[in-house]
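A note from the maintainers: we've had questions about how concatenated examples are separated. There is no special marker in the raw files; a new sequence line simply starts the next protein. For clarity in this README we add a label.
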Amino acid sequence: MQGGIDALDRSSLPAADNINPYAFSIAVNGELIIQKGKMIAYYGNLKFEALTQSAFASFVKTHFNSPMYAGDFVIVTGQGQLILGDRGFDINSYNIEAGNLTVRAANLLGYGGDLQLKQSIIPGYVALIGTGIMIAASHGAVHFIEPPCRVDPQALLGWADAPSPCHHYDYQYVQGLMGALGSAMGRSSGEEHQLDFVGAGTVLMQSSETMVSDGKLLQVLDGQSATLSLPGMQQLHQRIGARIQQQQSSQY
């Protein structure tokens, strides 16, 4: 091509690897589940169907078990080459061998093999169990950390073969001047709140605290808010209002 630009050639695309940090190529020969809107190109004879309307009901039944996220994914069938991308985010793949990996649902681009997706007890996350390939987006490069460790919740991408984390609050920081001001403004940072990992396994951390938007989290929070008392709902309303003001002021 003119200008020295090399066009993509199907014959030279990898079977399951990155084309560059922002695009991933995977050969499809059967069935694959991907997140809606993440296909940027494909070669061959591929078909995209909603999970709830797919003719491959038995495949979906054994590979997808999360009603909350069923509307966010589609099943890809046929033979061809699929290219995935996500708004310029970094993309990585992970080969899971008879294990389990929990990942932010909004960051999960697709998976295949004998992996089964289940909804995690941690809001906003899903667990992949079995053997196969998982493709995920991240804001910046992904770093692998061995427990025991504490991670900023906003930087956490997921964890593999490790127990679910628990919340850790640094009360010395919170009781300090900056911590008190932060709480008054409804701010929650990695300095005062972390997720604590113990035991064996691997923690996946992205290089930035910027998270991919996940609309399903709002559904989870809305459902949990029904259990709050009136004073609790009023306090939550005040904290949300303070956070909205803080976000708006940071944009100017």
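[label: protein 2]
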Amino acid sequence: MTAILLNGVLVIASPICAQDLTRSTSVADSKVRNIDGVAAVVNTGFVTRKEIDDRIASLQKQNAKLPDASSLRKLVLERLIIEKIQLQNAELEGASVGNKELEKILADTAARNKLTYTEFKDKVIASGTSFERYKELLRDDIIVSRYREREVDSKIKISDAEIDNFIMERTRAISGAGAQRSTQAINGGPEEIDVAQIFIPVEAGAGAGAQADAKKKADALLLAARGDIDFLQLGAMAAKENPKIKFQDLGYRTPDRLPKLFYDAIRNTGGGQVANAVVKSPAGYHVLKVLDRRAMSAGAPAQAIAQEPASSTPQNIPITQTNARHILLKSRSGLSDQDAERRLQGYRDQIRAKTVDFADLAKKYSEDGAAANGGSLGWMSPGDLVPEFEQAMNRLQIGEVSNPVKTQFGWHLIQVMERRESQLTVEKQREFARAAIRERKFEQAYQDWIRELRDTATVKILNVDDEATSALR
């Protein structure tokens, strides 16, 4: 429940339509209005002003860029209302988390942070929250998360045809079959363009800092897309890291059916190539790739032209797998980028001088779950790792140790142990395709579900502008 607001769905409060109220409801509302600190009534429960204050305080501790105070209170209230509705619905359906399960989750969380249970408890209390309150919020968060996953998953439908089309496009991208434009298209004849995009949204009214961060992320994805990586797979990884990022294949379209900004950016871009620059729109930043360009059949409308059939039956795709290990220093307060890079550079010098073994350093200093195994990641296939890590790893010779590499997880030192040729089986391709398509559809299904929950709930906003302490003044 204390999860970062900016990683959640911010639904801006819309005006609540007036409803006919019975006399008993009016009396109840009057009583609720007199309860000091109630900001909104949500079905049979309520959101207090103190809950709003606590959530805002949590956000401020994260040093996130936040809107003005009034707008922030409204956004936080709306988020709390959505959470309250989800929790009420989940509990009505009998969802629960027992004490034994909750204690195991707490113990696992402590272990992942390399803390004993007591140390973890002390750390929570030091943050300003009682441990009992933390457990209560964690329990609610788990219940809501499970309920949300179940409900949204049930709304996502993926057909075999969608999976087949995804695999066909991905196979064509890997094999380079889409790199050639048709003769008719080159000669200026009517054509269709298959464009894919990775979209990094920027909320309306976002400040210069948020704009710059989104642009930086888009530029990094554009650079990665120019490398030896499948574009849709890159989009799937980016969306997994940040659910707000979306990726999609727009399918074959004539130029007039593409957004003008998109067509202007890829007008002279060949099949299999990415646009020269990131595209800025009022909604955010777009990284574009032309998957294919093809000539239209004479006299046939664009929508009547069927997708090109696959050239052969599904088959395994040859891939190169890498067995690597790493040392990770996580990004955290108190450890600057310069300090992390300097420490890893020192480890690298020791390894190259053969005064210490990579695995021993990883066991002692690495800050992830692979530390106990000497930093070993095992055999990795293309797309299993974040782009920055994978690109640096792919440039290494067997036995070579990288310079420090930064990803969203922190700073890494990487060593390649082995490489081998393998195959991505048809079954694995379908598993990946289903997961990628689900990722693509999840955000829209989630947004639709949230709107449905909000529209069918009874919500009455009483007082959002004042802080809980205002009554004491």
